[in-house]
Design goal:
heterodimer; A: alpha/beta; TIM Barrel; six-stranded parallel beta sheet; B: alpha/beta; Rossmann fold; 2 domains; five-stranded parallel beta sheet; 9 helices; about 60% helix; binds CO-5-methoxybenzimidazolylcobamide
């Protein structure tokens, strides 16, 4: 089904009377078109959220895990963080059940280690002989917790926010979770046939897992959305491969590309998350996949700031696919001066509602 | 002989561990001086890997297999170097700072420094300021301390470690190099580090400058 002909419906969200227009702008963006201005997503500074992070900092690993697993607490915190907010631009309140980026790997095997704002996995596959024991387990502790977070959120969300599906990384990043990144780099030379088998195993459960959440969400009148906060009425997904920042284009083409092609196949909207210049090295391969509909560009820290140094790269991608850019509001004028607006989706961190309205005005004149 | 040393160079460069072992053994059997094997073949190979990495022509897996080949060769060579009284060019203590578990970059820097002839003491990850101080005091003859951080949230631990060195009054006895993706030269200078490097190849050059081996 073409994205333009998909069935659409409206969702009531307090503080977001313009839900339908926002969706129209997003659909236009996917087509490289602009209705009245490019879409904009704001991430507002939230003193409450900052304070909660500080709260976790003083805890030991077990205490942190208990809080990550506390469904009531997670939902209370989320709801308090959005309380009374008015949603400007294409900023949707979305609760995405979250146990960190390695949760998909942990659905098969491995323990998650919980930090303050994210988690990571302890590699579980020490010996290739144990590969056959790796199985998608939809009854495992992490899977059940994500289900619980999803179901509770669906009960509590009406009129207030959207519920998304959890962050799923079924490609090489999943294999890295099982083997550890350094070992996996060596595996690519030492045991390429096992790398292929492992990648195949990682992707094999993806459609089942994705469908599981998509069915639940759609049965509750929800859209398709995840941490990225860009909803669609079809099947949206954010493929990525952070590990690819460590390897050559030839290796990505051999091991990463075939998995990406399978990962995106059943989706209507894929936004590939390019995390820094190391991943951008593979943009030709990534964009060679017709189902990769858009790109999110994330520059790194340190030398990789500010955004203006990336304008040539951004233009190059913009010529081939719609692109999300996360920039600092102080960089906005220079950025708009240097770029054409078609196909650009802006993400901007803000301090207040007034500021968001002022930025929308400025962007409307671009 | 030249053929054997060339073969060893190629084996290390291509990450061929068994080839490295065979060529080191053959070169020793043919009477090559252990120092020549190290200086004329293995170190240049690692420097070339570092150069290719800097140029974006080699990547992390290639660096890792080259370093592994170097280590395999060194295992054979090391007893001969000791017997021949070949001294390391300097001693380095390195680690990833407190709260940070990223070690691939730090390991590569360590491997490259070893490849350049330094003796390294790797403290691992999540190394507290006090553990850096203790290691330098225990080792005694440390020339260079290398700290790695990959998280913006752990970068302040670099300053904390340097402050701990000042507090322990050993700051003037060593040189300090910092690195990791978010680290800039401006940050390094601001916290009192003596140098910083963007990648493992450059780290060797900065180390050589800081330890007086190069201008
Ligand atoms: C002393 O002198 C010197 C001189 C030069 C020095 C030097 C010292 N040290 C390094 N260098 C330099 O030389 C090296 C070789 O050329 C270079 O080293 P680098 O380390 O930069 O480069 C390495 C060769 C390759 N690069 C890497 O190894 C890092 C790759 C990425 C993908 C990465 C990995 C692999 C991991 N991670 Co993490 N991880 C990411 C990274 C994203 C990315 N695309 O870069 C990054 C660094 N991680 C991040 C985060 C947030 C985290 N990670 C975490 C965990 C992990 C893994 C355990 C899964 C794994 C580390 C495994 C390991 N054993 O190291 C968590 C924190 C854990 C902790 N407390 O440390 C977690 C908090 C959570 C998470 N799930 O992502 C981000 C940091 C954001 C920030 N700026 O603060 C991140 C940029 C990913 C992202 N985009 O969000 C140079 O910097």
């Amino acid at each position: 089904m073409s994205s333009q002909t998909q069935e659409r419906w409206s969702v009531e969200i307090a503080g977001m009377p313009h839900f339908d227009q926002a969706m129209d702008r997003i659909y236009a963006w996917f087509e490289g078109e602009i209705i009245d201005r490019p879409p904009v997503r704001f991430s507002a500074h939230n003193a409450f959220v900052e304070q909660q992070k500080g709260h976790l900092a003083g805890m030991n690993a077990e205490e942190r895990k208990a809080l990550w697993f506390d469904v009531e607490y997670q939902l209370d915190m989320f709801e308090r963080s959005i309380e009374g907010r008015v949603w400007h631009g294409e900023t949707f309140p979305v609760f995405s059940p979250n146990l960190g980026p390695d949760v998909y790997a942990a659905f098969y095997a491995g323990d998650l280690i919980f930090g303050e704002v994210t988690s990571w996995i302890a590699p579980a596959l020490k010996d290739w002989d144990d590969m056959d024991a790796l199985r998608l387990d939809m009854d495992n502790v992490y899977f059940r917790k994500i289900d619980e977070l999803t179901m509770q959120a669906l009960e509590r969300c009406p009129g207030k926010y959207l519920v998304g599906y959890t962050d799923l990384h079924p490609g090489l990043d999943c294999c890295v979770g099982w083997r550890g990144p350094q070992q996996f780099c060596l595996d690519m030379y030492d045991s390429p046939e096992n790398v292929h088998r492992l990648a195949d195993l990682a992707i094999s459960g993806f459609e089942t897992v994705y469908d599981h959440y998509d069915d639940i969400l759609k049965a509750h009148g929800q859209l398709s959305v995840n941490w990225m906060g860009i909803p669609t009425f079809g099947r949206m997904h954010v493929p990525s491969c952070d590990f690819s920042s460590l390897i050559s284009p030839a290796m990505f083409e051999e091991f990463g590309l075939p998995i990406l092609q399978r990962e995106v196949k059943t989706m209507t909207h894929n936004i590939f998350h390019i995390d820094g210049k190391g991943v951008a090295r593979h943009r030709d391969a990534i964009l060679s996949v017709p189902e990769v509909h858009a790109i999110q560009w994330v520059q790194g820290m340190g030398h990789d700031l500010p955004i203006m140094q990336w304008v040539p790269l951004i233009k190059e991608i913009q010529a081939r696919a719609p692109i999300i850019i996360d920039l600092n509001k102080a960089e906005l004028d220079d950025f708009m001066e240097a770029m054409e607006p078609e196909g650009v989706f802006l993400w901007i961190a803000t301090e207040s509602e007034e500021e968001e309205l002022e930025l929308l005005d400025r962007i409307a004149k671009w | 002989m030249e053929e054997l040393l060339d073969g060893l160079y190629t084996a290390v460069l291509n990450g061929d561990a068994s080839g490295a072992v065979e060529n080191v053994t053959a070169a020793l059997n043919a009477g090559a001086a252990p120092e020549a094997i190290l200086q004329e073949s293995m170190i240049p190979a690692m420097m070339e890997v570092g150069r290719l990495f800097e140029l974006g022509e080699a990547f992390v897996p290639e660096m890792l297999i080259a370093a592994r080949a170097m280590q395999s060769g060194l295992q054979i060579l090391r007893p001969h170097l000791i017997a021949a009284d070949v001294e390391p060019v300097g001693k380095v203590v390195l680690g990833t700072v407190s709260g940070d578990m990223h070690d691939i970059g730090k390991n590569l820097v360590g491997m490259m420094l070893e490849g350049a002839g330094y003796a390294t003491v790797d403290l691992g990850v999540n190394v507290s300021p006090q553990a850096f101080v203790d290691a330098v005091e225990k080792e005694g003859d440390v020339d260079l301390v290398c700290m790695s951080a990959l998280l913006t949230t752990t970068m302040p631990q670099m300053r904390a470690t340097i402050d701990a060195f000042k507090h322990a009054e050993i700051y003037d006895d060593v040189k300090i190099m910092v690195g990791g993706a978010p680290v800039t030269p401006e940050f390094a200078e601001a916290i009192g580090a003596h140098g910083s490097a963007d990648d493992a190849g450059q780290a060797v050059k900065v180390a050589q400058r800081l330890t007086g081996l190069a201008a």
